[in-house]
């Protein structure tokens, strides 16, 4: 209760009453819910910053579609793809498209929003249940002289029809879940799983000030010196105060030509705020706001095959963060805004100027360093150290791992290199020789993990040791160490097991998370002993990974308060998937979790939900069939796989699962057909070839089995399991010479 001391003086009484009221209201002001105020409020004090932001990629990330915002040709322009001719036209001042809908037939749709600005612009169509879908026919906004000013398809070399998971009407091109979070401010997905409906909202349609700084109502209180503003002085009422660069100087060492930060970077705040969108990651909560720890709300991809090449160069579109974590720049203390103006998104200097902020021009901006004529493309730092890779056909994205070109690795591992990206008429051997001639050696660079990750991916005999060495190397970037530990799951022995154990207590959360995953499938008692302590980890992404891996552990093996601790982390895991309930992958994960914990009915419901959301999502069919197998419902499993096969005749996983089912049913001939198809559809999957070969041998077809194993051996020459089986099968077939040859190969591998 508010109490006021009344004095004789009327003026004094009023003053004290006001003061008392302020002190009463102060905690209410400080603890009040922070609210979004909009960029029109920000511009009142930050006109310069807003001016820089106007017309930037962030400002134009999403716009209402009209004649001013849409750059494409809607004058009855036609575009033909996969046998479908789409027409872009105007009707009653509305921008329209006539194109193939979810049924494969032509329909007319209104263009509601323009998405992006350069070098391409996409367009959003409003569908039922609150869905916005992004057309896969986009407009090339580049100049005509550069090949632009045209309609084009994002998958020009494929034939994407309405039955394909990459069709514009399907989940992968749903704006609400795939795009919206990073193209608008204060995005609320608002998905209702029961009705499969979105009611998505935003504070501002684009990426505005508060997308990075957080809701600014308290900042306004501080700026206007409203009651309680003094308590907000430390951070000016902002959730994120970007002050990591304040007072920082970069002094160039004249001997090395490289700069050193005047004070160590002690915060990841700026980098993590950028990473919320500029990273390939999974969302694990629905309540992120700027300034919150990144790994408490997102789970980033490691240097996984298909995402990155073995040396860490970008392969798929990974949006910078994972690349930057590998770089020497990151470890030297560089932040995003050292190079990029955070408001305009432009580089702070043009050309080599941005690099020469920290690297001496007389040492690095010279032909003695780069061996290219000044003023040419080859003399640009970015061309060699940040080679671009095109995504969405016309959008070059620069690799932010800042690496030294390694054409010698291209020769050994098949990884790309900057030299041959320009010199396309030459091979990697030529480039490697040229580099060695220039520098007297093959420069190794900062990233030294390529050989290890490549060996792990290929199943080389020495992969375990190579990966373990990288994990133990303190010079290896943490994201690469985590990736190496993840790879160790295939090479568990006494030595690698100790490495993984140590990874569980590593300072880096990604390493701890990867270590947990590497232990998946071990016996329950081991998992409880090693993984259980991480259910209390301070980082949410680590906790939920621990809960996932511990799911198969029988409840009876948890003692005392262990069950309550597990249930809390398991609840977080379920929440992480529920936050993405509209995604079939999330439903698959829920199904797997429930299957592991004995919740068969819930697992079945989750798998079926995944199929309902996306009827061509094959992992759900395969896992549902496996669930039925465990219940001895073979007929149901067969029907599920047959349906999947009809929808995706070229899916290797479905054929393999169906082949194994037919083996169990002793339908040998049919099983061999399916296993053979799986092996041919997935030649990169050594396991499928191996299983097919074993099946052939067990049906008295040893010559065909050996032939398949030889094919596999050619692709995976150091795969021990394949070599051992070749030895066994050749011995049984009386091919003693061949068996001896493979025995010598195995001995050689084991010696190395």
Brief rundown of the structure:
Among the domains are: 62-207, no CATH class; 250-404, no CATH class. It is built from 34 helices and 17 strands. Helix 30 packs antiparallel against helix 31 (686-698).
Number of strands: 17
**Number of distinct helices:** 34
- Approximately what portion of the residues adopt beta-strand conformation? 5-15%
Helix content class = 40-55%
> How is the main sheet built?
9 strands, antiparallel
Shape: globular
Radius of gyration: 29 Å
Q: Between the first and last Cα atoms, what is the distance in angstroms?
A: 79 Å
Assign the structural class, choosing from mainly alpha, mainly beta, alpha/beta, alpha+beta, or little secondary structure: alpha+beta
Please state the oligomeric state of the protein chains shown: single chain
Mean pLDDT: 93
**pLDDT < 50 runs, ≥5 residues:** 1-30
């Amino acid at each position: 209760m508010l109490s006021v001391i009344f004095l004789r003086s009327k003026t004094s009484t009023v003053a004290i009453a006001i003061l008392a009221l302020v002190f009463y209201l102060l905690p209410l002001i400080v603890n009040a819910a922070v609210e979004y105020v909009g960029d029109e409020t920000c511009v009142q004090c930050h006109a310069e910053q807003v001016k820089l932001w106007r017309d930037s990629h962030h400002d134009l990330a999403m716009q209402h579609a009209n004649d001013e915002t849409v750059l494409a040709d809607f004058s009855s322009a036609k575009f033909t793809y996969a046998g479908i001719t789409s027409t872009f036209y105007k009707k009653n001042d509305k921008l329209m498209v006539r194109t193939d809908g979810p049924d494969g037939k032509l329909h007319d749709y209104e263009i509601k929003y323009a998405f992006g600005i350069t070098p391409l612009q996409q367009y959003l169509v409003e569908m039922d249940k609150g869905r916005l879908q992004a057309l896969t026919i986009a407009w090339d906004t580049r100049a005509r002289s550069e090949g632009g000013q045209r309609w084009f398809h994002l998958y020009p070399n494929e034939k994407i029809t309405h039955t394909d998971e990459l069709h514009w009407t399907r989940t992968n091109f749903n704006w609400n879940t795939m795009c919206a979070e990073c193209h608008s401010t204060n995005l609320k997905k608002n998905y209702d799983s029961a009705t499969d409906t979105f009611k998505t909202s935003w504070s501002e349609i684009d990426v505005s000030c508060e997308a990075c700084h957080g809701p600014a109502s308290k900042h306004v209180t501080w700026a206007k010196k409203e009651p309680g503003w003094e308590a907000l002085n430390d951070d000016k009422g902002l959730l994120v105060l970007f002050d990591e660069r304040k007072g920082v100087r970069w002094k160039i060492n004249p001997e090395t030509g490289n700069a050193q930060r005047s004070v160590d970077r002690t915060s990841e705040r700026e980098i993590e705020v950028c990473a919320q969108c500029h990273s390939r990651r999974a969302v694990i909560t629905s309540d992120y706001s700027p300034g919150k720890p990144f790994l408490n709300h997102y789970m980033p991809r490691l240097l996984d095959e298909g995402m990155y090449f073995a040396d860490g160069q970008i392969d798929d579109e990974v949006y910078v963060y994972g690349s930057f974590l590998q770089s020497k720049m990151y470890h030297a203390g560089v932040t995003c805004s050292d190079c990029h103006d955070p408001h305009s998104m432009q580089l702070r200097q043009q050309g080599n100027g941005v690099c020469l902020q920290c690297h001496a021009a007389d040492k690095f901006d010279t032909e003695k360093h780069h061996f290219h004529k000044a003023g040419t493309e080859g003399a640009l730092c970015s061309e060699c150290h940040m080679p671009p890779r095109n995504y969405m056909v016309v959008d070059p994205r620069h690799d932010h791992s800042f690496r030294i070109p390694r054409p010698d690795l291209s020769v050994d591992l098949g990884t790309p290199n900057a030299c041959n990206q320009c010199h396309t008429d030459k091979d990697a051997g030529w480039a490697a020789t040229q580099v060695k001639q220039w520098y007297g050696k093959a420069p190794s660079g900062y990233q030294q993990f390529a050989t290890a990750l490549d060996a792990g991916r290929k199943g080389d005999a020495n992969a375990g040791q190579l990966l373990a060495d990288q994990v133990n190397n303190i010079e290896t970037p943490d994201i690469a160490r985590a990736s190496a530990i993840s790879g160790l799951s295939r090479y568990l022995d006494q030595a690698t097991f100790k490495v993984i154990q140590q990874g569980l207590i590593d300072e880096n959360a990604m390493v701890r998370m990867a270590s947990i995953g590497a232990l998946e499938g071990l016996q329950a008692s081991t998992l409880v002993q090693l993984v259980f302590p991480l259910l209390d980890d301070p980082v949410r992404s680590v906790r939920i990974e621990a809960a996932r891996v511990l799911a198969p552990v029988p409840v009876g093996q948890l003692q005392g308060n262990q069950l309550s601790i597990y249930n809390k982390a398991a609840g977080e895991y379920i929440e992480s998937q529920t936050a993405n309930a509209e995604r079939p992958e999330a439903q698959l994960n829920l199904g797997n979790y429930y299957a592991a914990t004995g919740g068969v009915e819930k697992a079945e419901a989750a798998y079926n939900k995944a199929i309902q959301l996306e009827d061509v999502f094959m992992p759900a069919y395969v896992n549902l069939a496996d669930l039925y197998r465990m219940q001895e419902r073979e007929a149901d499993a067969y029907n599920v796989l047959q349906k999947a096969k009809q929808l995706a005749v070229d899916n290797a996983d479905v054929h393999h699962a169906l082949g194994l089912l037919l083996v169990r049913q002793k339908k040998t001939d049919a099983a061999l057909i399916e296993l053979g198809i799986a092996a041919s559809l997935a030649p990169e999957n050594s396991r499928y070839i191996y299983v097919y070969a074993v099946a052939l041998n067990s049906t008295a077809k040893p010559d065909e089995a050996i032939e398949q194993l030889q094919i596999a051996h050619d692709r995976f020459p150091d795969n021990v399991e394949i070599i051992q089986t070749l030895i066994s099968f050749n011995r049984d077939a009386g091919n003693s010479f061949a068996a001896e040859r493979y025995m010598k190969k195995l001995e050689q591998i084991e010696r190395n």
